[in-house]
Amino acid sequence: MPRLKLTLEYEGTRYVGWQVQPNGPSIQAALEDGLARLLGERVSVASAGRTDAGVHATGQVACFDTSRVLPMKAYLMGLNGMLPEDLAVVDAVEVAAEFDPRRWSMGKRYRYRLSNRRTRSPLRRTTHWEVFAPLDVDAMRRAAAHLLGRHDFSAFRASDCQAKHAVREVRRLAVEGAAGDAVSFVVEGTAFLKHMVRNLVGTLVEVGKGRRPEAWVAEVLASRDRKRAGPTAPPQGLVLEEVFYGDGPPARTAGGAPDAEEDES
């Protein structure tokens, strides 16, 4: 039975998140409904990670098994015609039967978008966190350097995070843009804890506002205490940009793939 890997782009504003839930529309349900129309059978879709309500993606990865054999263009053309306008398939390939989008992941890249104008932006309201106070972007860049590498990120996990441990590796944390306009936080790592990216951003913004010194970020990290960190940035600024894969499942090492199933942004 063929296993298909889909790369998805979606605007998450009206969804309760990736996972099927009883309280509203989900990305997973919309995709499975579209696939049922295309294939003439119900399939169960697995993803590389759960995204929260309001979170977007340009590179979410999902896979499913089907008894139907269709050309790949059927998923790019036919399926996209059956999906809501805020959800699209941007790539489709057949993969090995053992491929698992979550457990085979070597890492992910997220982008968090922030609008730093003095006035609100109607065009950015569902895709950016609007922060009106002037931000010191250079200070945030310097503070972000404290978060690079492999650490225990307990101070940046959600209180209800179920991951077995909080050791993660942040490979990249870049602060792009300029104060008074759009600012982006680009975060790349092996795996992430629940709300970790949004908590990192919320903490760096405290530095950008001048409320905390740059060295405070290192103190928060060392404390392993969520109460010491900044607030959780709102979901609408977050985008899952890319999921990285090798030729097979990665080695199970601390801070990497073992707890990738706990990743929820």
Give the rounded overall mean pLDDT.
94
Radius of gyration: 19 Å
CATH class identity of the largest domain: Alpha Beta
Largest sheet: 10 strands, mixed
CATH architecture of the largest domain: 2-Layer Sandwich
Number of strands: 10
Broad structural category: alpha+beta
According to CATH, the homologous superfamily of the largest domain is Pseudouridine synthase I, catalytic domain, C-terminal subdomain
Count of DSSP helices? 5
User: What overall form do the CA principal axes indicate?
Assistant: globular
Query: What's the number of structural domains?
Result: 2
Unreliable stretches covering 5 or more consecutive residues: 253-261
Distance between the termini: 32 Å
How do the helices and strands follow one another from N- to C-terminus?
EHEEHEEEHEEEHHE
In CATH, the topology of the largest domain is named Alpha-Beta Plaits
Strand content: 25-35%
Q: Could you walk me through the main structural features you see in this protein, from its secondary elements to its overall organization?
A:
The protein is an alpha+beta fold. The protein folds into two domains: 3-95, Alpha-Beta Plaits; 109-244, Pseudouridine synthase I, catalytic domain, C-terminal subdomain (Alpha-Beta Plaits). Helix content is 18%, strand content 28%. It is built from five helices and ten strands. It has helices at 27-39, 73-78, 137-144, 196-208, 216-223, and strands spanning 3-10, 46-47, 56-65, 87-95, 105-115, 129-130, 149-152, 167-177, 182-189, 238-245. Strands 1, 2, 3, 4, 5, 6, 7, 8, 9 and 10 form a ten-stranded mixed sheet that branches. Strand 8 and strand 9 form a beta hairpin. Helix 3 packs across helix 4 (196-208). The protein is globular, with a radius of gyration of 19 Å. It starts with a strand and ends in a 20-residue tail after the last strand. The model is unreliable at 253-261 (pLDDT under 50).
